# Entry
Amino acid sequence: MDNKNLTFPEMPVKETKIDYKNIISLQKKKNAVRKELHERGILPKGAHNDYDNYDYFSEAQYKELFTELFSKHGIELIIDETDYGTFDGTDKQPFGRVVTLACTLIDIDTGYSETSRHTGEGLDRGDKAGYKATTGAIKKFLSSTFLVATKDDPEREDDKSANKKTYSRTTSRVTKLPTNCITRGQLAMIKSLFKDNKEELKEMMNPYNKKKIEELTMEEASQIIESKKGTDKDE
# Structure
């Protein structure tokens, strides 16, 4: 048979329909929350940081506020952790953590949802750095999405000497956050692959001049994982 004579029907192209009705429904609910927040004015700060001597709008206040508003306006919030990294902190707060969260708002009347990702950083001298980073990411999402007015502005200059002291100390002491650091999934994978052969892991890390797994970048971690998997297949 001559293939030149063969004809094939054209496959129909599926068009992605944008559900404007559901998008508008969720947007109206978000605007209703913003309007109510605007009517409440500047929200009072209910917590105090003794270390740097300043007042702030706490995580508990955020949760109480938005539990009330979301319940009233028919919005559900789901938060998932998508990335987790570490970095070197300061002398007094040596542990640094960075967390990326996927924050999904759901219109409970239509089921329509929208997701945005937000990153938070935290420093601590114990085991609370991760908690601080997660709290920071949640606060960032809520405050930026719904324009929460608390006067907790990192760029605001104040005549009070205590605030000036806090600002200068923070900017001079915080270690620059590394970019493209190893993900939590990669960290777990490497520990699993090399649990019975730590010497082999050290040899693979030598070309990158890294002594700890946490110091690897995502690309370096990926190369080590792929190299190990290839070695295991050959064996």
Notes: Residues 72 and 186 are 41 Å apart (CA to CA). Residues 184-234 form one domain. The helical segments are 20-40, 59-73, 129-146, 161-173, 184-193, 198-205, 218-234.
